[in-house]
Amino acid sequence: MVVRSPYRRKLIFFLVLTFFWFTADIILTYLTPLLAETREPNLALVGLIISMGSVAGIAADLFSSWKFSDRHYTFFYTAAFIIAMFVPLLLPFEGVLPVIILIMIGGIQYELFVFGQEDFLGHHIPKANHTTVSGLILMVTTMAALLTPLIVNPSLENLSFRFPFLLYIILLAAGALYFFVMRPAHKPEKTQRQNRIGFINELKIWTMLTKRTSIVFLVMLALMFLDAIFWMLGPLLSFEYASRNPELSGLFIPLYMLPGLFAGVYAPKIASRVGELRAAIGTLFLAGVFLIGFLFTEDLALLLILNLVSSIFSSATLPLIEGVMAHLIERLGDDGGHFIGLRGFATDIGYIIGPIFGGIIAETFSIREGFAFLGIVVAIAGAVMLALNPRPIRLPHKKLHELEEA
């Protein structure tokens, strides 16, 4: 499916911008477990440190949803680029605290960019194209994730972070320049209103939307739980196998990301048969099942195959559930910003409990077994959600308006 004009120009701009920004963010995501481990050798504590980024992200989501729910996506991109530039300033400082602050800044800028991405997808792309465009976004981010380890790994043999963070600065600067020079002119496409919603009412809105969209919320949470553990334990597993099998050890994260190049093609075909939401839950369940295989082998080649097959399914889950969320944002209209904040909240909860869970399991058992336990949790969650037989979602438009006017 091709996205027709007048959306095509905006889409091309958005995808190029996403490549610059996401490549920089992947560098940060890839380096933070290694950087944290150089300051704190206990993996359980490393997981706790990494989760601080999502704690900060929750605060950013709640504040953005409360105060900026009606802002245009360019507002969030501008804020994200400005905040991201503070990350390299913390590198010269020793100790754990600067790493925690760095990770928290990274969490805030990530959520701001995703807030803009969800606004773009929900309000500037036709409903019929939501899953397809989500697949294109995944394809671009996958290209970034495939390239990053190949470029960064050689400089990490001696745990030198100078080159990766220099590359981070260059990509951010290039992305910011591209954004400010090339961004399309826009007219107000949403009704701009003075935001008088009280903080307590914003929490009530989140609670109401969570109840009505609980199955969507849980799918996103489980997927981000899986993704967070992959990005925490994946680089550590590659480093663990590097001395035994240097040729294959660097393939773990690239193979995890590779199916994302094609998920935009096969995910809509699955959705056309069973519906987007059931397809998202089913593919999540299968992703967990194949990860359980990590319990039964230490052979790196077999681990890589299990990783690849699992990621074929989890890569489909993302555009499927993003498509469902984009439909909901579109249905909510000017109130969509509240749901975007809630979507970020689900992501951040996954990224808080994921690294903590992964760190504790890896410290107690092994990094490899951490992936197996991850598979057990995700498979059980998927099976339970499938058994609940998800039904059409009814949104509380009237109650939302009552809370906004209160």
TrEMBL record:
TM helices/strands, residue ranges: 12-31, 43-63, 75-91, 97-116, 128-151, 163-181, 215-236, 248-267, 279-296, 302-321, 342-365, 371-389
Lipid bilayer topology: Multi-pass membrane protein
MF annotations from Gene Ontology: transmembrane transporter activity
SUPFAM superfamilies: MFS general substrate transporter (SSF103473)
Chief localization: membrane
GO cellular component, one term: plasma membrane
Domain Major facilitator superfamily (MFS) profile positions: 208-406
Highest taxon, organism lineage: Bacteria
Localization per Swiss-Prot or TrEMBL: Cell membrane
InterPro entries in alphabetical order: MFS, MFS_dom, MFS_Efflux_Transporters, MFS_trans_sf
Keywords: Cell membrane, Membrane, Transmembrane, Transmembrane helix
Full protein name: Major Facilitator Superfamily protein
Organism listed in the record: candidate division WS6 bacterium OLB20
